[in-house]
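so ive been stuck on this for like two days lol. basically i have the seq below and the ligand is adenosine-5'-triphosphate, smiles is in there too. i just want the complex predicted, nothing fancy, no docking runs or whatever. if the output looks off dont worry ill sanity check it later, just need somthing to start from for the group meeting slides
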Amino acid sequence: MNWTAVYAIFRFEMNRFFRTFMQSFISPVISTSLYFVVFGAAIGSRIQEIEGVSYGAFIVPGLIMLSVITQAISNGSFGIYFPKFIGTIYELLSAPINFFEIVLGYVGAAALKALFIGVMILVTSTLFVDITIAHPVMMLVFLVLTCVSFSLLGFILGIWAKSFEQLQIVPLLVVTPLIFLGGSFYSISMLPPVWQTITLFNPVVYLISGFRWAFFGMADVPVGWSLLAIAVFTLGCLAVIGWIFKSGWRLRS
Amino acid sequence: MAAILSIRDLRKIYDGGFEALKGVTLDIDEGEILALLGPNGAGKTTLISMICGITNPSSGQVTVGGHDISADFRAARKLIGLVPQEVNLEPFEKVRNTVAFSRGLFGKPRNDALIEDLLKKLSLWDKRDNQIRELSGGMKRRVLIAKALSHEPRVLFLDEPTAGVDVELRRDMWNVVDELRATGVTIILTTHYIEEAEAIADRVGVINHGQLLLVEDKATLMRRMGQKQLEIQLDTPLDTLPESLIREGLEMGAEGSSLIYTYDTKGERTGITALLTDMQAAGLKLRDVQTKQSSLEDIFVGLVKGDAA
Ligand SMILES: Nc1ncnc2c1ncn2[C@@H]1O[C@H](COP(=O)(O)OP(=O)(O)OP(=O)(O)O)[C@@H](O)[C@H]1O
Ligand SMILES: [Mg+2]
């Protein structure tokens, strides 16, 4: 293992983050506050409680997931797309490093940034609602796994994308709807039975359900399924990345 | 001396089916400086990119320091530094950081003194804390060189290092190459400037249409291919060339005030004695005589033209 190289990539990526630190710091705080104003105050006053949890608290896990997933994808994809776009990728391709080390550096940094955002949102939301976390360790496990797996997905997108439009389109057209329809802001049990079944094909449902279980001890689907789903997803992404580097797809002509 | 870089029948067919490199075989000795000459699109960058791991070879084999570039890519690439033709740099990164980053990428431990020394040599020390986007074009090119040298490579590829660079910087660059030569670094450079190859290379390769037309010791090449010109200034200009002097290789210079005789130094006989004797017989008086070795440029142009035909 070329740990020096992994660290070099990681540091380089984190530098980019720190250059825009205030922006990275303030935007999740503001957007979380807005969500609380809109969903918590406006909608929450009508819904009151879901399975014994106040609506304001109920949406916190979904809110965190929404931001963390979006951030992880955009960090992961931008980190590798940018060198491809400006041509500095030549250095990565000619360095004595293998794909695993490149991924570790880029995805490590992307996931850490996303994790930071997630924690920021959690902290901000305690300003609006009371939150007690039933299973703190499992909460962290879900959070970290989500950061890592979606950074991996972002990494794949970044390699696949040939333009900035393509870079934006998957998160916009696929991921964001999946998150919104994945029970971020409601319980699956509130849907009509047909939709409940359809929703089970949405992978994000398992994530949010597991994450919410870690907070409140209640879940739409069994926790074991949630863990399985995220594990399968992570391994799938890793397999795709492994193949990409082996074949040089969209990297080496 | 042992070959540090060994290329065997290296081929590249790009996705569209275009064959950019048609089987190149070449050995390069440790400490040698090889200049690759060739017109645009000849395949120089393709060749370098395959050796460095940026492009996948279609077939063939390359070893660097005895390490195969694909089976043993780590060991091979650790020995290689690359200055690419295109100036590709992260615009918002600081000069010093981007150079340190390259060193880290190649697995070398941090060494601030080495990087300071490098930046000073390349006249970049004043700009060490500037962002790349704040540098001039020539400075950016020097940053690329600093990045390539940051991990102390044993083999350095310079893909047109002096394209778009002013005369002074070109001199600086040649000095850097000289210094590297002294430390035994092997250098492969591509260039369109023939005087550059002439000035710094030990061997010269000419590549065109994806084929290595020749690789030869610079001196041997010039001797083998070299023709000399004898220029004779006349005391009184001529209107026409006297019948008795007409022969292959002889032309009248401007306004008939000189005669230019081109001959092969390697030939059995040069014909100079005969020419001078005939001139005396024709009653021509000489004012001055000089000879000129034909340059690498003449050789290069001759080769590439011959290849196109
Ligand atoms: N990615 C690619 N896909 C398809 N063809 C390519 C690709 N890269 C280069 N080529 C073609 O391969 C040939 C050789 O290109 P290469 O860049 O190696 O030339 P070069 O000798 O470096 O030229 P120059 O002096 O202009 O830099 C050219 O005809 C070029 O169009
Ligand atoms: Mg080129």
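The longest strand of chain A covers residues 49-50. The mean pLDDT of chain A is 88.
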